[in-house]
């Protein structure tokens, strides 16, 4: 019984110290759905993952992750003052085909799918 308790304690410590990248599904992203609602949900999930990754002081936690084998349709994602971030796309990102709903940038035309300003050391 004691061995099980020690083993479970070690596993808990390892789980707490494991790489904590920010999987967009943990922020509500919906995979393999081409609906307009899913595009908006995925846009917000990606933004929230970016904010969370950008807010941490731990270098290992500064990654946004799109998981393997899944496809995510989304509207544009934008952000400012991002630093030392990695965006790992192992799955598929698809831009919305709904051009009539594509957001405009403030007096500068259409937004890009990924539209970031004032960025330092961003890896995709």
Task: Please describe what this structure looks like.
- The protein is an alpha/beta fold and 124 residues long.
- It has one domain.
- It contains two helices and ten strands; from the N terminus they run αβαβββββββββ.
- A four-stranded parallel sheet has the order 1-2-5-10, covered by helices on one side. A two-stranded parallel ribbon has the order 3-6. Strands 4-9 form a two-stranded parallel sheet.
- About 11% of the residues have low confidence.
Summarize the structure.
This protein has 124 residues and is an alpha/beta fold. It has helices at 2-17, 36-55, and strands at residues 22-23, 63-66, 71-74, 77-80, 83-89, 92-95, 104-105, 109-110, 114-117, 120-123.
Chain-wise SSE layout:
Layout: H1 2-17, E1 22-23, H2 36-55, E2 63-66, E3 71-74, E4 77-80, E5 83-89, E6 92-95, E7 104-105, E8 109-110, E9 114-117, E10 120-123
Parallel strand pairs: 1-2, 2-5, 3-6, 4-9, 5-10
Antiparallel strand pairs: 7-8
Largest sheet: 4 strands, parallel
Helix fraction bin: 25-40%
- Class derived from helix and strand content: alpha/beta
**First-to-last CA distance:** 47 Å
| Average of the residue pLDDT scores | 86
The radius of gyration over CA amounts to: 17 Å
Give the domain tally. Answer: 1
Number of strands: 10
- Low-confidence runs of at least 5 consecutive residues: 4-17
- How are the strands of the largest sheet arranged? 1-2-5-10
Q: Tally the helices: what do you get?
A: 2
């Amino acid at each position: 019984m004691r061995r099980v308790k020690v083993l479970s304690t070690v596993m808990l410590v390892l789980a707490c110290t494991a790489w904590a990248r920010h999987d967009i599904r943990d922020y509500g992203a919906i995979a393999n759905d081409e609906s307009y609602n899913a595009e908006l949900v995925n846009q917000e999930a990606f933004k929230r993952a970016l904010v969370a990754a950008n807010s941490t002081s731990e270098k290992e936690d500064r990654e946004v992750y799109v998981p393997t084998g899944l496809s995510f349709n989304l509207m544009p994602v934008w952000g400012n003052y991002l630093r030392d971030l990695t965006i790992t796309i192992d799955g598929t990102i698809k831009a919305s085909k709904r051009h009539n709903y594509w957001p405009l940038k403030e007096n500068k035309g259409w937004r890009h799918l990924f539209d970031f300003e004032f960025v330092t050391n961003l890896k995709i």
